[in-house]
Amino acid sequence: MSSRHRRTGLAAAMGVFAALLPAGAVLADRITVFAAASLTNAMAEIEAGFEATTGHEVAVSLAGSSALARQIQQGAPADIFISANPGWMDALESDGLLETGTRVDLLRNSLVLIAHGPEAAPVEIGAGLDLAGLLGERRLAMALVEAVPAGIYGKAALESLGLWESVAPRVAQADNVRAALALVATGEAPYGIVYATDAVAEEDVTVIGTFPAASHPPIVYPAADLANRDVAAEAAFLDYLRGPEARAAFERQGFIVVAD
After folding, report:
1. 177 is in an annotated binding site
2. DSSP structure class, residue 122
3. Of residues 134, 178, 179, the one with CA closest to residue 158
4. Are residues 103 and 23 in the same domain?
5. Total number of domains constituting the chain
6. What is the CATH number of the domain that holds 145?
7. Would the annotation count 150 as a binding residue?
8. Residue 247 belongs to what domain range?
9. Is 38 known as a binding-site position?
């Protein structure tokens, strides 16, 4: 048989084989999702559910929104970005790095003061709170206050209540909100400021107060498709994020789902 006939026969056999496979197996894509660290638990559920439902593969990279946004600006091969604040998504949109029309506000969250251990006494968070006295010589764990959304919101709340200057020298800054949570969970810092959803994920901390919503900008999580390539799984994943399975996963972690 000539090499030409062999190649033709092989192509025909591969075509028959592909036709016999489930459509999902032929069309499956692999996408990379960059997501804020505060989404860790919910994204584990969503990743597994999406893969089982669609046949697509997902790789989730979790870190502070600022670090992820900068990686995207530097050309990191991500397909979807879920930020813990609109500012970093705005920056990527200004750079032309979002697929037009795909950005959606997905979630809301709240900000809490946590303490190490299960028996910490509650406090009333307001201008009259002596947070500096509560800390003494100890540390207040926060995510990076000039870069990471949880830290930015936390600093804004403390400034709004007139508490920032008195506690700023005692703040222990961590790379992301989950790292700040870990400092309190392990007892390295007795108190910390994190999202309410982070506190749900850690049994070794206690929420001792919730910051008034008016003390900081609304905590909004936007999601968008990035404009570096176009595969079917990207749109499918954004649809899944707005569907009932993802909604249930987010709500189990304490998020408020705002996307339809």
Report:
1. yes
2. P
3. 134
4. yes
5. 2
6. 3.40.190.10
7. yes
8. 3-108+219-257
9. yes
